[in-house]
TrEMBL record:
The lineage of its organism: Bacteria, Pseudomonadati, Verrucomicrobiota, Opitutia, Opitutales. Residues 62-257 form the Helicase/UvrB N-terminal domain. It comes from Nibricoccus aquaticus. Pfam families: ResIII (PF04851). GO terms for molecular function: ATP binding; DNA binding; hydrolase activity. SUPFAM superfamilies: P-loop containing nucleoside triphosphate hydrolases (SSF52540). InterPro entries: Helicase/UvrB_N, Helicase_Restrict-Modif_Enz, P-loop_NTPase. GO terms for cellular component: cytosol. It comes from the Bacteria. This is Helicase/UvrB N-terminal domain-containing protein. PANTHER family: ATP-DEPENDENT HELICASE IRC3-RELATED, TYPE I RESTRICTION ENZYME ECOKI R PROTEIN.
Length: 909
C-alpha cells in the first residue's frame, strides 16, 4: 500500500537528499548543513560536529524536526533510500533503527515486516524524486540479527529495529551483541579485507571477534533515531561509537538544545501540518472551577454527542465514517471506575461505549480497531497516559477532571486528540478542530499547561499560542464558542416535534429528553430557531432557550461564524477581502493553462547527439575529502565555540571519512566483474533522480549517450578495463546525470527565450488565476519581531521574514504605502504565486493588492545579485507577466537602497 507524501514531507526529504548528496560529493558535513539552514531557517546556526568517542568528527549527524502528527516514522522509512543511494552510494546497506520503547518496537516491527504496509512500501520503492527506495528489504530483531547470514546482508537492505538498551553491555540481549564467539556469525569473518581488520574488536584468540558488533562494524550501518531521546545520553553515545555507523539521522519533535544540541537540518511548522490536513487545529478550550466538574463533564459529553451528529452529516457528503471519541482524564484509577459508573447511571451511556485505560486496567487491549464501523467505543477513561504507540484520530475531545496535574500530565494525552482522521480536511469545519475541557481555578493555568504540552510535541511557543483558542475576554487569543446547556424538564419537551426537528438540527442543537437538557452548540438561522423553540412547550423554558440561542449567536458573530479558526476578524483574509492574481499562462489552441516546466520540454531533442565528455571538474579522478572542525566551550562565557582546523593532512582518517566509507561499501557491494553493457544498463536504470527526467529521454538515446561517455573516459584516462568505473558507478552516475542536466537546461533555455519573443503564446488572463483567499499559507517559521504589520493578508505575522535586513525593510515599506491595500510575504519554494524561469520556478518575495485593484509583484535583490544571469531571467519573465496583463499586473525588482522604485512603479498608469 502506498501512502502519498504531503507537500511538506516531500520538501523535508528533498532537503535531506540534497544534504546527503553534497556530503557524499565533498566529504564535508558542515558546509552543506550551514548553507541549507541559512537559506531555509529563521536564523543561521553552526553545525556541531559529532562528539562521540570512537567516531570521526566528520560523520554526518543531522536532525529532522517534525511535530507530533507529522509522520516521523514514514519519513524515516523514506529517508533510508537516500542514505543508502545518495550518501553511501551503495546498492544495499545495514540500518539500525532505534525506537524509544518496547511497545513502539513491537509496533514498528509489525509495520516494517508487513509487505503491504506504507512504511514497507516507502522503504522498498520510495517516492520518485523525494526518495529512491532500496529494493529488497529484510527486517530483523536483535535476536534475529544474532543469526544473520552473509547472504542475507549481501542480498537486501537489512533493517534491525531495536531500542538502544538492547545494545548496551549491561542488558542481557546487549551482552549477546558483543559476544566474541558467536558461532552463528563465523561466515562473516572468513574473508575480512586486510584493511578492515584493524577496525574490528579482537576476540580471546587475538583475531577479530565473531560478534554482531563486528558484523555491524564491517557493514558501516546507517542509524535512524526515531523519537528515541534516550539515544542522546553519554552512555548511548558510547554504545553508538562501538558500532561505527556511517551516519546518524534523527527524527524527533523535540530535539536536544542544551546538553548535546541536535543539528536541526529542517523543521516542519504547525502551519505546514495544518495546511496538509495532518492535525486538528485550532484546539478549543473550555474551563470551569473544580466544584463544577459535573457540569464541565456534561459540556464535554454534549459536545462529543454533537460532533457525532456532525460526523453523520459529513458521512452523507463524503462517505467517510467518523465516530468522535472523548478522552476523560480522572484523578486516579479508582476515580476512573467512579466516572464510568457516573456515565452509565447519570447520562445513560451504554457500558460497551466506555473503556478504561490506565496502568493497572487496559480495556482497550482487546479492541482490534477503534475506527471499525461496528466498534461501539465513544469514551476512554484514563489517568496519566494511554498505552505507548496507541493512536486514534477519532479522539476529538479531551476532558481533564484532575484538579492538580503534574507538568507532563496534559502533555502525555493531548497529542492523542491532534491527529486528523485519514489526514484529510472534512467538509464540516467542526471536525477539523480539537476540543479540551478542564477543571481549573484559572483559564491562564490551563492555557499555560496546553502551551507547554504543545511545545513538548514539537510546536514553538508562538505557534502554541496561536493554535489554542480560549474563552479569554480580551488579550490576543480568540474566543471559543462553547456549547450552552439549558435544563428543561422532560415534561416540557414536545417529544413529537423533537423527533421531527432533531435530525435537521444535528451539530447545532441536541436534545436529551431523558436527562432533561437542550444544548446549543452553533448559531441557527431563523427557520432553525423556530424549530428549536417549538420543541419546548412552556413559555418560560422558551425564553431560556432563546437566551441560549442569542448567547451562542452573539459569540459566533463577534469571533467568526461558527467559532471559526480565525482570530479577531481584523485581517484582510478574515474579513474575506478578495485577492486574485492572474497567472502567466500559455495558450495552445483553445486550451489555456499555467506556464510550467512541461511547456519547455515540448521541442524534441536528441541526447545522443550531445557532447558526452566528462571533465575533470565534473568527474574528478580523485575523491573529495572533508574538513575538520573544533568544538570547545569558552571558559569565561560558557558558550559553545566552533572553528575550522587548518592544515589537516588529506590522508588522515578524519578528513577521509566519506571517501574511505565509499571504498568500504563498494567492496561489500560486489566486485568489478561486469561487462561494458552491464554497466550501461545499470547506469541507465540509476541515472535519474526524478522519474520525470527519465521519461523525457527515450531509452535508446540514453544508452547511446552512456556508451559514448564511457568510451571517452576509458580513452581519456588510459583505463585497460572498466573495473574502476564499475566500482565507482554511483559517483559516475551522479556526474553523468549532471552532464545530461546541463544539456537539458540548455534546451529549456532556448525554449524559454523563444517564448519571450513578442509573437509567443504566453498571455496573462483571469481565467487562469490564483485566489489567495482559497490558498493555505504554510510558512516553516514566522516573523516574530517588534514591528507590527497592519496589512499582511495572512494575519497575524508574515511567514519566513527575518526581523532585520533588506527584505524586512522592503516589507515595512510596502506595509506603509498608501497605495497598497494588502500584501503577502510569498514563501520561497512553496509560495502560492510563482513565475517560470528556464530551469525552475521563482517566487517573488512579495505580492501586493493595490487600492486601485492592480496587482504588484516585488522581487527584492541585493545589489550584488542585480546583474546575475538568474536575476536577469527573473526580470525578463516578470516583464512579460506585466506587459501581457493589459495593465492589471506590475512587476518590480528593486535593488539595495532602491525602494523608491516601488513607488515609481505603483505610480504608473
Amino acid at each position: 500500500m502506498n501512502l502519498a507524501l504531503k507537500g511538506y514531507q516531500t520538501r523535508i526529504l528533498g532537503t535531506l537528499r540534497d544534504y546527503l548528496r553534497e556530503v557524499a560529493r565533498t566529504g564535508d558535513p558542515r558546509n552543506p548543513f550551514e548553507k541549507i539552514v541559512a537559506a531555509n531557517a529563521a536564523k543561521a546556526v553552526p553545525y556541531i560536529p559529532v562528539q562521540i568517542p570512537g567516531l570521526a568528527g566528520v560523520m554526518p549527524y543531522v536532525c529532522l524536526r517534525v511535530p507530533t502528527g507529522g509522520g516521523k516514522t514514514l519519513l524515516a522509512a523514506h529517508a533510508i533510500g537516500s542514505a543508502v543511494k545518495d550518501y553511501q552510494r551503495a546498492e544495499r546497506a545495514v540500518v539500525l533503527w532505534f525506537v524509544p520503547s518496547n511497545p513502539i518496537l513491537e509496533q514498528t516491527l509489525a509495520a516494517l515486516k508487513n509487505p503491504r504496509h506504507p512504511y514497507r512500501h516507502a522503504l522498498e520503492r520510495g517516492d520518485g524524486a523525494a526518495s529512491p527506495g532500496v529494493g529488497a528489504v529484510e527486517v530483523l530483531t536483535i535476536e534475529e540479527a544474532l543469526r544473520v547470514t552473509p547472504g542475507t546482508l549481501d542480498g537486501a537492505t537489512v533493517v534491525i529495529v531495536a531500542t538502544i538498551q538492547g545494545f548496551r553491555v549491561d542488558d542481557t540481549t546487549g551482552r549477546k551483541v558483543y559476544d566474541p564467539i558467536n558461532g552463528a556469525l563465523d561466515d562473516h569473518f572468513r574473508a575480512v579485507p586486510p584493511d578492515r581488520v584493524g577496525d574490528l574488536e579482537k576476540g580471546p584468540d587475538g583475531k577479530p571477534a565473531r560478534s554482531l558488533e563486528n558484523v555491524l562494524r564491517l557493514r558501516r550501518p546507517i542509524v535512524i533515531v526515531d523519537e528515541a531521546h534516550n539515544v542522546r545520553t553519554p552512555l548511548s553515545f558510547a554504545t553508538l561509537g562501538k558500532l561505527q555507523p556511517s551516519c546518524i539521522l534523527e527524527f524527533t519533535a523535540t530535539p536536544d538544545r542544551e546538553k548535546a544540541p541536535s543539528n536541526v537540518l529542517h523543521r516542519v511548522s504547525a502551519a505546514e501540518l495544518k495546511a496538509a490536513a495532518m492535525i486538528k487545529l485550532p484546539i478549543r478550550v473550555v474551563t470551569r472551577p473544580a466544584g463544577e466538574w459535573a457540569r464541565l463533564l456534561t459540556d464535554a459529553l454534549t459536545l462529543r454527542q454533537s460532533l457525532e451528529g456532525i460526523a453523520a452529516r459529513e458521512a452523507q457528503t463524503s462517505r467517510e465514517y467518523l465516530r468522535p471519541i472523548a478522552l476523560i482524564q480522572g484523578r486516579d484509577v479508582e476515580h476512573t471506575q467512579e466516572l464510568k459508573k457516573h456515565l452509565v447511571d447519570e447520562h445513560g451511556i451504554a457500558d460497551a461505549e466506555i473503556k478504561i485505560c490506565t496502568g493497572k486496567i487496559d480495556e482497550l487491549k482487546d479492541v482490534k480497531d477503534l475506527a471499525a464501523v461496528d466498534c461501539p467505543v465513544r469514551y476512554i477513561l484514563t489517568v496519566q497516559k494511554l498505552r505507548e504507540g496507541w493512536d486514534c484520530p477519532f479522539a476529538y475531545v479531551l476532558c481533564s477532571l484532575q484538579e492538580t496535574r503534574s507538568a507532563t500530565a496534559i502533555e502525555q494525552i493531548v497529542g492523542r486528540v491532534l491527529r486528523l482522521p485519514k489526514a484529510s480536511f472534512k467538509t464540516e469545519p467542526a471536525l477539523n478542530e480539537a476540543y479540551v475541557f478542564s477543571v481549573s481555578p484559572t483559564l491562564a493555568e490551563v492555557l499555560g499547561e496546553l502551551k507547554g504540552a504543545l511545545e513538548l510535541h514539537g510546536f514553538t511557543g508562538a505557534e502554541a499560542e496561536r493554535i489554542i483558542l480560549s474563552g479569554a475576554d480580551g488579550g490576543v487569543l480568540p474566543l471559543a464558542v462553547a456549547p450552552v446547556v439549558v435544563a428543561v424538564h422532560p415534561d416540557d419537551f414536545d417529544k413529537t416535534l423533537v423527533a421531527t426537528h432533531a435530525p435537521a438540527l444535528i451539530g447545532k442543537v441536541s436534545f436529551d429528553v431523558k436527562a432533561g437538557t437542550l444544548t446549543v452548540s452553533a448559531p441557527l438561522n431563523d427557520t432553525e430557531r423556530a424549530w428549536a423553540l417549538s420543541c419546548v412547550k412552556a413559555p418560560a423554558m422558551q425564553a431560556q432557550v432563546t437566551a441560549a440561542l442569542d448567547e451562542v449567536g452573539e459569540a459566533a458573530a463577534a469571533w467568526g461564524a461558527g467559532g471559526s479558526l480565525a482570530a479577531h476578524a481584523t485581517g484582510p483574509l478574515q474579513v474575506r477581502l478578495p485577492f486574485v492574481v492572474p497567472l502567466l499562462a500559455i495558450r495552445q489552441g483553445e486550451l489555456l493553462e499555467p506556464f510550467e516546466a512541461t511547456h519547455l520540454l515540448e521541442r524534441p531533442w536528441k541526447l545522443s547527439e550531445r557532447d558526452a565528455t566528462l571533465s575533470e571538474a565534473l568527474y574528478p579522478a580523485k575523491r573529495a575529502v572533508g574538513e575538520l572542525g573544533l568544538v570547545d566551550v569558552e571558559k569565561e562565557s560558557g558558550r559553545v565555540r566552533t572553528e575550522r582546523t587548518e592544515g589537516v593532512e588529506e590522508d588522515s582518517v578524519e578528513t577521509d571519512f566519506v571517501s574511505r566509507l565509499h571504498q568500504q561499501v563498494l567492496a561489500l557491494n560486489g566486485g568489478s566483474e561486469w561487462s561494458f553493457e552491464q554497466l550501461v544498463v545499470w547506469l541507465d536504470r540509476n541515472l535519474f533522480r526524478d522519474p520525470e527526467e527519465r521519461r523525457e529521454i527515450i531509452g535508446v538515446e540514453s544508452a547511446l549517450f552512456l556508451r559514448k561517455a564511457l568510451n571517452g573516459l576509458v580513452t581519456a584516462r588510459g583505463l585497460t578495463d572498466i573495473g574502476p568505473l564499475v566500482l565507482d558507478r554511483h559517483r559516475l552516475a551522479e556526474a553523468l546525470a549532471q552532464r545530461i542536466r546541463q544539456h537539458r537546461e540548455a534546451e529549456r533555455l532556448a525554449a524559454f527565450q523563444a517564448l519571450l519573443l513578442p509573437e509567443s503564446e504566453l498571455t496573462v488572463s483571469v481565467e487562469v488565476s490564483l485566489d489567495f483567499a482559497a490558498t493555505r499559507y504554510e510558512p516553516s517559521w514566522s516573523y516574530d519581531g517588534g514591528h507590527k504589520f497592519k496589512k499582511h493578508y495572512y494575519a497575524p505575522a508574515p511567514g519566513e521574514l527575518h526581523n532585520t535586513g533588506e527584505e524586512f525593510e522592503c516589507a515595512v515599506y510596502l506595509d506603509g504605502l498608501p497605495e497598497v491595500k494588502t500584501w503577502v510575504r510569498n514563501l520561497s519554494r512553496k509560495g502560492p504565486f510563482w513565475l517560470r524561469r528556464s530551469t525552475a520556478n521563482f517566487y517573488p518575495d512579495f505580492v501586493c493588492l493595490l487600492t486601485d485593484g492592480r496587482v504588484l509583484a516585488v522581487e527584492y535583490k541585493g545589489a550584488h545579485l542585480a546583474t546575475a544571469d538568474e536575476a536577469k531571467e527573473k526580470a525578463s519573465v516578470g516583464a512579460i507577466w506585466e506587459s501581457r496583463s493589459d495593465g492589471r499586473c506590475l512587476f518590480v525588482m528593486p535593488t539595495s537602497g532602491g525602494l523608491a522604485e516601488i513607488r515609481r512603479k505603483v505610480g504608473m498608469s
